[in-house]
Amino acid sequence: MVRVAEEWFAVCGGCELSLLDIGESLLDILPNLEIVHMPVLMDHKLFGQKGDGTKPEIPEADLGLITGGIRNEENKELALEMRKKCKIIVALGTCACFGGIPALANLSTTEAMLDQIFNKEKGTDPSSPPSDKSLPKLLDRVYAVDEVIKVDIHLPGCPPTPAHIVELLNAVLAGKTFALPERSVCDTCPTIREKQSTGGSIKRPLQNAQFTPGRYDNMRCLNEQGLFCLGPVTKAGCNRILGADPSEEIPRCIKAYMPCRGCFGPVRQSSNPTADIMGSLSYIGRDPKEIVDRVATINRFIGSGRLRPQDK
Ligand code: SF4
Ligand code: SF4
Ligand code: SF4
């Protein structure tokens, strides 16, 4: 029996939905799991059942799943508590691994972000940011979980696929570790590559690619067509289906004739996607300077340690 604790920090809840999306495989796995803490599923009180505790406590567990980046003091305290109580910590989803979309806020200081949201947004009456002392204090930026505590396993994806979650849980039940292969989205993409651009400028993401409906194998690489695709620097696996041959999985956005936006994060933890994608575009004769809002676009899902305030 593996005892499981789960916590969520700066999230949208999509990673938890992916857990539920496991479907029938969950029936095989559940008898071997004892869920001891999971706010989305059970009413376990962090400060004791009567609320008389003085600090948040999470029960001891073999496996600790964390979704979401670390945005405030409470997230940080709970991350430290999870590390103390769980033998194995998994950063589940791109927000936990790299900050995800919430880490785009790292392009601003906390003060500038609050000022923008509460005073400058069109359509909202200006007001003061909440000052209630019971609210957790925001940290200076969004942190990936491994910037605050040691993480044993990273499982990226926005959200991670249910198939990968099953593979992860089965690996833990078998006493093994788990890691996605170091392959890029391009490695699993069926489009035709001629190693040169078709000319013109880099287009905005919502412009259509040239394609034959139902065919992927005669569509020209989207970067060569002039759309901006992060496939060369993004980890493969977004279309993982249990029991299917990984070599036949077509990346999800490519299947919709859309460029990859990088939601699985870098191919390796230590990669430098900005330098790598600029090199990749230059190689086929594209000018990376044409990418609109370049810094945020390249780091859309991975801004925790990479984006810095641009405020004047
Ligand atoms: S990784 Fe994606 S699905 Fe998961 S919490 Fe973040 S935004 Fe939501
Ligand atoms: S850049 Fe995009 S379209 Fe081109 S091969 Fe890579 S994933 Fe496919
Ligand atoms: S193609 Fe890229 S952006 Fe689209 S789901 Fe896959 S990894 Fe995410």
Secondary-structure blueprint:
Blueprint: E1 2-8, H1 14-20, H2 25-29, E2 33-37, E3 61-67, E4 70-72, H3 73-85, E5 86-92, H4 94-98, H5 110-120, E6 138-143, E7 153-155, H6 162-173, H7 222-225, H8 252-255, H9 273-283, H10 294-298
Parallel strand pairs: 1-2, 1-3, 3-5, 5-7
Antiparallel strand pairs: 4-6
One iron/sulfur cluster (SF4) binds at residues 185, 234, 238, 251-254, 260-264.
What is the H-and-E element order? EHHEEEHEHHEEHHHHH
Helices, by number, come to 10
Helix share bin: 10-25%
| CATH class placement of the largest domain | Alpha Beta
CATH homologous superfamily grouping of the largest domain: NADH:ubiquinone oxidoreductase-like, 20kDa subunit
| Overall mean confidence score, pLDDT | 94
CATH structural fold name of the largest domain = Rossmann fold
Structural class: alpha/beta
Domain NADH:ubiquinone oxidoreductase-like 20kDa subunit: 12-171
Protein name: Hydrogenase, group 3, VhuG subunit, putative
GO molecular function: iron-sulfur cluster binding; oxidoreductase activity
Pfam family, one: Oxidored_q6
